[in-house]
Every structure is written in C-alpha cells, then in structure tokens.
Amino acid sequence: MQMNTDSKTTISIRRAAERGTAEHGWLHARFTFSFANYFDPDHMGFKSLRVMNNDTIEPGGGFPAHPHQDMEIFTYVIEGELAHKDSMGNGSIIKAGDLQYMSAGSGVTHSEFNPSDKNQTHLYQIWLHPEQPGGAPRYAEKPLGDEAKANTLTLLFSPDGRDGSTAIRQQAEIYFGKADAGATLKLAGDESAPHAWLQVIEGNVSAFGEDLSTGDGIAVENFTDDLTIVAAAESKFLLFRLA
C-alpha cells in the first residue's frame, strides 16, 4: 500500500501477512522482498536495501557453506542462537539480541546453523548493496544484549563508523530502536539521505500515522522533517536511513 503524505514524502507499507513464504521443513521463511523462488516485481528491494528475510530455523537445521560476493549482510538473532563459520577464519555463536555483520566484498564463503537440539532459532537476515563492488571481506559482531538503551535510537552501522558504530560499505545508517509503551523516538531529516525503512521486530509502533505490528515494514521516501515513531506497546525495531 502506497500513499503520499505531502508533495514530496511518500510511504509504502509492507504488512507481515503479505510477505512471501517458503517452507522447507527445517526452515520457515518470510520474504519482504523477492528472494530465491519467491518473485514479486513490486517488491524487489528499497533503495540499497535488497533483502529482508525473517527466518525460523528448526533445531539442527541450517545453511551449509555457500558463497557471497558484493553484498553487505546483517543478521539479527531474535530468539535462540546461530552458529557461524566463514572463510575469513571466524567462528562463533550469535546469541539472541545480538547482530552480526559480514561484508562479502570480493568473495566469502560461510555457513550458518542452529546449534541447539531442542530450540528454534528466529532471526532476520538483511542485505544491502554496497556502494562499490570488491574489497576484502569484513566481519564484525554487535553484542547488543541489554546494552541498547531504552527509548532511544542506537546507531549500529554507518558509512564512517561514528559514535561507536561499525563502518559499512554503503551510504546507510542502521539504528536499533527499543521503546517502552508510550515512548516517542525521532530520526531527524537529512537531505543527503532522505529515505528510510522501518522494520518492526516485535511490538506495536506508529509512524506517519500508520500503525505497525510485529513483522510489518514501512518505506519512507523523501522525508525532510523528523521521522517520528511512537510505541503503543513495548517494542523493538530496526531503522534504516538510506541515500
């Protein structure tokens, strides 16, 4: 659903129930944008944002070693754990509430598995196109846990790595929002990066007068005033500022 809020700003809502799906026994996937065998020409990405997959992995399930190239890859674990190994020599277990960043650059191979024999792993995997192709692969982890302050936007990733964020290869900023019921959070307008995507991890928030629930996403183009987010319940979300 797309609508205009003024002469410049346009918003489009992607409801959780409208996303593409895939069921593979060990994997239950929800696709905001076209991915793998799910294709929708109206949902091919937003600006540099290309993939927004919401996956549930059954105990012991996962993706064996596979290659990536020229993509900025972010994984946020909502519940459970994710075991990661890659050709850069990294090997770790990403726990619930934490984020992983991998810049595939000129090429990298990695595997991802649910290491538990009884608990599901629930996560988001997000891809952004890099500003330029190539470069040596990069890897970083962001152990959020309880460190993200309530009722504020925590800058996780940015082009220049400012304010303790991790530098990425795209003109994009990624924020983690954690809000109590009734809290209001704001992202100031920026003419150099006037677009945004808000993805609700859990809870209920509103933006531009639109109510959003768990799994919903909203695209905002050409906003110049503050982007105001109001939490109707205790909520967590990811917010992307995009050029």
In short, what is this structure?
This protein has no helices and 23 strands.
CATH topology: Jelly Rolls
CATH H-tier superfamily: Jelly Rolls
- Low-confidence segments, ≥5 residues, pLDDT <50? none
Succession of helices and strands:
EEEEEEEEEEEEEEEEEEEEEEE
Secondary structural class: mainly beta
Taken from the alpha-carbon principal axes, the silhouette is globular
Number of strands: 23
- The CATH class is identified as Mainly Beta
| Count of discrete alpha- or pi-helical segments spanning 4 or more residues | 0
Helical content, roughly?
A: under 10%
Backbone CA Rg: 17 Å
Terminal residue distance = 22 Å
- Would you identify the CATH architecture? Sandwich
Strand order of the largest sheet: 1-2-21-18-23-16-14-15
Number of domains: 1
Mean pLDDT: 95
Written description of the protein model:
With 243 residues, this protein is mainly beta. It has a single domain (2-242), classed as Jelly Rolls (Sandwich). The protein is 0% helix and 54% strand. It has no helices and 23 strands. It has strands at residues 2-4, 10-14, 20-23, 27-31, 49-57, 62-68, 72-79, 81-86, 91-95, 99-103, 108-113, 121-128, 138-142, 152-158, 166-167, 172-179, 184-187, 195-202, 204-207, 210-213, 217-221, 227-231, 235-242. The strands form four sheets. It has an eight-stranded mixed β-sheet, with no helix packed on it. Strands 3-4-5-12-7-10-13 form a seven-stranded antiparallel β-sheet, with no helix packed on it. A hairpin with a 4-residue loop joins strand 8 and strand 9 (91-95). The radius of gyration is 17 Å and the shape is globular.
